[in-house]
Structures are given as structure tokens and as C-alpha cells.
Amino acid sequence: MSTAAVKCSIPEYLNEDLIRNTLIKEFHSNDIVVEEFDVSPATSAGDNYMSDVFRIPVKFRLSPTEKKIEHISFVVKCLPDTGNRGSVIDELNAFHKEAQMFTEVLPKLSKIAGDEFFAAKCFDATAAPNRMLIFHDLKSLGYTMANRQAGLDFDHCAAIMTKIGKLHAASMAFSRENKDLMNKYFNFNMFNPNEDLRTECINVVFEKGLGTLISIIEENWHDFDPVILAKMKELQPVYVKKLEACLTQKFEDGFKVLNHGDLWCNNMLFKYEPKSQKLEDVVFVDYQLSYYSSPGVDINYALSNCPNLETRDRVNDLIDIYYKSLSETLKSINYPWIPTMADVQHEIRRMEFFSLVSVVSILPITMMEKTDTMEVNFENMIDEKQAEQARKIQYNGKQYQAIVKPLLKHFHEKHLLDV
């Protein structure tokens, strides 16, 4: 007899029928017997925003006569089609992008790159009657999330850059034969060209976020350069437009890859050798913003959001690691053209404004210090009053200020704050 944890927040459709049908599809047998399962939230508050994620460990037998009990653990990602989240998911085409990535694209990228492990196996992706994706639970394979508040050390960041290089290289080969798929599903990131009326989510998260940071600097950052502050004030009215111009720019020079599109700490899991705890691997999750564009999207985003304070002094070393991974993977698959380091640096500069936006608007969420007065979730992020309250906590964080003050000076020197 099957059992499940009863919690009001758990959807009714996460039931025995769903589990049995998933097992039937995976093992190609109608004789599957589900013995026991449990459903529980797979993430903590602040670890996931647009979706609801549940973990389902299952005990089952391959047939009624089979005595051996098998074990498997699923993670089910549910993407609502109602409320604010539903609207944003529709605008971003997030479900269909991610479904394509996991069912069609990532398995082929893995094969191209010599069976590189880019993502969890996806057992099913369905839009009706409910939007959800069913994955193999990476936790059951020994993968775990890092501490997002602390930031990542050099070894973790090096593993990320190595994996991005392999992913990008494989996507270059894949995209040559699949231009139609790239153009259909992966032609935009946050700014859907088919949407005339956009939700206020982008403005609240980005423009209003910059406004709150400006006010916090005026109130509390007493040693901050007034010239840089003045530049930030001039930038605010056109901040979102400049972000859109950066992410949607058309270019024929340089090169394009299929970017993950949202590489912050919560979208990556790490595996360690059990005895020594030496880092062995990193794998990415949440491919819902994947985007065929400049590799500068992923490089700038990851290097802005992931490193701890000490590792930020070694950004050039991390770029070298990315380039080595990219070029060696391309050589191993006999790709006809290998970008130079100068080509990579050009793409980083092309998308550098995204680095500024990441530091101002994404990094504070990553580093937000725990508080009893504020729960970070999607609704709070897009509600102006709640978002402003969260930002005040984020921008006053000591770790955040230690990282961001010198970065804002750097962005000023590189003219990224210029209107």
C-alpha cells in the first residue's frame, strides 16, 4: 500500500497514478507495483522562485511476483499557469523552453561532449492538465547545493567555468544542424519580442531595485563616491532599456552558443568525493531561460553572481579556464573553427552591461542574509513594497557591500554607468 505525506501545499496530482505511469514509461512494463512513496518540498524558502519543486522517494517492485524492492527518487518541478507566476512563465515561455532543453537538446549536447553530465535525466515533461517536469533526483546521486550566502571559492568557480565551456562547445556543434529549433525556442531570454504588454516583473526587479540601492547608498553608504552615485541616478530611468538593448542586440561578428541563461548558485549542484570531500563535479538545473546568443551572457552572469570576495581577484584565471574547456572540447569533436581568447574577450565585453545588472539586481538575492522578518519568494520579489523591504535587507548586508562597492567603481571606470 502506498503512503504519501499529507500537506496542503502539495498538489493532488502528485499521486500514485503519476508515479506509476512514470515508472511504466521508464521501465517499459505495465507490471510495476508502487509499494511506498512520500512527497515533500524539495527546496527551502528563497531557493526557488517561479516554480514549486517536490521530492518523491519511491519504493517499487518491477512486477507483482518480484520480491526485490527497488528504490528511486524523483524531483517534480511544477510551473503554475495562474497568478503572477503563471503570467511571467507564459511571457518568458519558460515551460516550453525547459521542456525542449531536457527532452530534446541536453541529451544530444551530452552525447556530443562525450557523455558529459549537463543535467538530471528528465523522465517526463507535460503541459496538460498541469505543467510539470519529472527529473531524477540529483540528491540521490550525491549532488548538493552550495551555500549561496557565502559565495563560492575558486575551485567551485573553476568547475563551473569548465562545465560552461563544455556546454557552450557542444551547443555550437548542435546549433549548426538545428537552426530552426534555436530560432523557435531560444530566440530570447527575458525580453519576449512577441509580447506587446509586458508584466511589471522586469521593472520591479531591475529598475526599482536600482532605485532602492541608490536610496540605501544615500542613507547608509557614507564613504561612497558621490560621482558614481550621480551616475547611477542618471542611469536609473534607462536602466531596463539598456538591459534590453544588451540582451537583444543582433550581431553577425563573433560567435553564438546556447546559454544556460540563469547561472546563479541556486541553479547548480555539486558532488564531492565521500571521504576526502574533494569537489568532483557540478551540474546545472533550471534551464528555463536558455538563450542562443553571445557566450558573454553566461560568462558575465556566472562571474558576477557566484564567486566569493577572495575569488573575485582571480576572474581572469576563471576566464582562462573557460576558454581552455571551450577550445579543447571543440577540438575533441573536430569542430571546424576554434574561437580565440580575443574572440571570447570580445563577447564578454559585448554583454558586460549584463554583469552590472547581475551585481545590482541578482547578486543581492543570492547573498541575502537570513531574517525572521522577511520570506523571500516570487510574490515578494514582484510586489513593490515587499520587494523594497527585501532590497533594504539585501543592500545593507556586509558581505554584499564588501563585494559591490569596488565593483561599482570598476563599472564606473569602464563607463558601464554612462547613459
From TrEMBL:
It comes from Aedes aegypti (Yellowfever mosquito). It comes from the Eukaryota. InterPro entries: CHK_kinase-like, EcKL, Kinase-like_dom_sf. Residues 133-332 form the CHK kinase-like domain. This is CHK domain-containing protein. Pfam families: EcKL. The lineage of its organism: Eukaryota, Metazoa, Ecdysozoa, Arthropoda, Hexapoda.
